[in-house]
Design brief:
Rossmann fold; alpha/beta; globular; 7 strands; seven-stranded parallel β-sheet
Length: 237
C-alpha cells in the first residue's frame, strides 16, 4: 500500500499503459481518477479495478480541450480537496508519414492532444500541488522523443516537446516539494504499438502491466527527492 490514500489522476486511462497505471495505483492504495474519450473503455477499466477492491472514478474528457481538463480537475478537487499524482499518459499516434506528406490538420491534432493536453493538465494541477507543497507529475515520452526517426514526424515532435516542457518545469519546481519526471515506456504490447508496427510480433514486448515499476516508483513517496529525471521503464523490469 505504498500509495495509500494518495489522489491520482491518470489521463488516457481507459486502456493500455494508462489502464495499467490506474490498476497498479489502485492496488497500491491510491484513490484513482481516469480520463478517456471512449466511454466503454472507461467503464471496463473502472469495473475491473473495482472488482479487485480498488478505488477508481471514470471521467469522460478530451485532454485537448482546456474546458474538459478544468472540469476534470475541479471534480477531483471537489471530491478530495487535493491531487497528489498526475500521470499525463493520453496520446495520439497520428499517421506514420513523412513530414513532407503529413496533413497539417492531423499534425495539429497530434500536437493538441500530446502537447497541449499535457500542458493543460499541468497548468491546472500545478497550483494545487504548489499549495500542498507536494506532488508528483509524470509525463510520458518515447524513444522517438529523444532521437527522431523517419516517418514519426508529428508524434516525435510532440514527444520532444514533452521532454523540453518537463526539463523546464523541473527547473522551475526546484525546492517547492513538487516534482516532475518523464518515463519512456519503450516498446510495449499495446494497441498503439500494433498500429505503429502492424507486422510486428507483439509477444516480443512486455505488457503494460509488466512495466509498472517505474510508474509506482515515481507515483509514490519513494521518489520524493527525484526531480527532472527522464528514465526508461524497462530499467524497473
Amino acid at each position: 500500500m505504498r500509495m495509500k490514500n494518495l489522489v491520482a489522476l491518470v489521463t488516457g486511462g481507459g486502456r493500455g499503459i494508462g489502464a495499467a497505471v490506474a490498476a497498479a495505483y489502485a492496488e497500491a492504495g491510491a484513490l484513482v481518477f481516469i480520463t478517456a474519450r471512449t466511454q466503454s473503455e472507461l467503464e471496463k477499466t473502472t469495473s475491473e479495478i473495482r472488482a479487485k477492491g480498488g478505488h477508481c472514478t471514470p471521467l469522460f474528457a478530451d485532454v485537448g480541450s482546456f474546458p474538459d481538463c478544468k472540469r476534470v480537475v475541479d471534480l477531483v478537487v471537489a471530491r478530495h480537496g487535493r491531487i497528489d499524482v498526475l500521470v499525463n499518459n493520453a496520446a495520439m499516434l497520428g499517421a506514420r508519414e513523412s513530414i513532407a506528406n503529413t496533413d497539417p490538420d492531423l499534425w495539429t491534432q497530434v500536437q493538441n492532444v500530446n502537447v497541449n493536453g499535457t500542458f493543460f493538465m499541468i497548468r491546472l494541477v500545478l497550483p494545487i500541488m504548489l499549495a500542498q507543497k507536494s506532488g508528483s507529475i509524470i509525463n510520458t515520452s518515447s524513444g522517438v522523443g529523444r532521437r527522431g526517426r523517419a516517418g514519426w514526424g508529428a508524434y516525435a515532435a510532440s514527444k520532444f516537446a514533452i521532454e523540453g516542457l518537463s526539463q523546464t518545469l523541473a527547473d522551475e519546481l526546484e525546492g517547492t516539494g513538487v516534482r516532475v519526471n518523464v518515463i519512456n515506456p519503450g516498446p510495449t504490447a499495446t494497441n498503439m504499438r500494433a498500429l505503429a508496427y502492424p507486422n510486428e510480433d507483439q509477444d516480443r514486448h512486455p505488457t503494460p502491466e509488466q512495466i509498472m515499476g517505474a510508474y509506482l516508483h515515481f507515483g509514490s513517496m519513494d521518489s520524493k527527492h527525484e526531480n527532472g529525471r527522464s528514465v526508461e521503464a524497462r530499467d524497473w523490469l
